[in-house]
Specification:
Elements: H1 3-10, H2 23-26, E1 29-35, E2 38-43, H3 53-66, E3 71-76, H4 89-98, E4 100-101, E5 128-132, E6 140-145, E7 151-155
Parallel strand pairs: 2-3, 4-7
Antiparallel strand pairs: 1-2, 5-6, 6-7
């Protein structure tokens, strides 16, 4: 059993709020270590108060035990804060296909003005406006596209 194999297996664990996105592609799985038949997994949630944290942790433990891992140790850590830049390219594509605008790179903006608009995941236009910084979850905002006349959510850049 290798670290790469564990990461591959963990691609099966999906984010409970965005089921097309694995925890690996979301960047929540921040470290994996293998010691014989024991596996250590480190997770950094997108938000400190993430209500799905216990569920995600349980899903990781269950998956690895079902794969034959004898001892699974999943730790939640905040040593390094999660950033939306940790979302993989595959994850960004999955967000867009799901109808959520991927977040801009956290390195892109120097002021809050860029947060006023987003790229529409349906028509790819930027003629959009922020309707509410508060979406259905802490990690999403609600926008409206003035071109295709559709509301959409954007994963927040952090």
């Amino acid at each position: 059993m290798t670290t790469d194999q564990i990461y591959h297996w963990l691609e099966e664990v999906k984010d409970p709020e965005i089921p097309v996105l694995s925890l690996v592609d979301l960047g929540v799985i921040t470290e994996v270590a293998v010691d014989g038949n024991d596996v250590y997994v480190e997770m950094t949630p997108t938000f400190v108060g993430c209500p799905a944290l216990d569920y995600m942790k349980s899903e990781v433990e269950t998956l690895l035990k079902n794969k034959g891992v004898e001892k699974v140790n999943v730790q939640v850590t905040f040593k390094k804060a999660w950033s939306s830049d940790l979302i993989s390219e595959k994850g960004r594509a999955a967000l867009k296909k799901y109808g959520l605008a991927p977040p801009p790179s956290a390195h892109v903006f120097a002021d809050l003005e860029i947060l006023e608009t987003a790229i529409c995941p349906r028509c790819s236009h930027t003629n959009t406006e922020l309707k509410s910084p508060f979406g259905p979850t802490l990690c999403r905002s609600i926008y409206y596209c003035n071109d295709c006349h559709e509301a959409f959510e954007q994963f927040k850049a952090i």
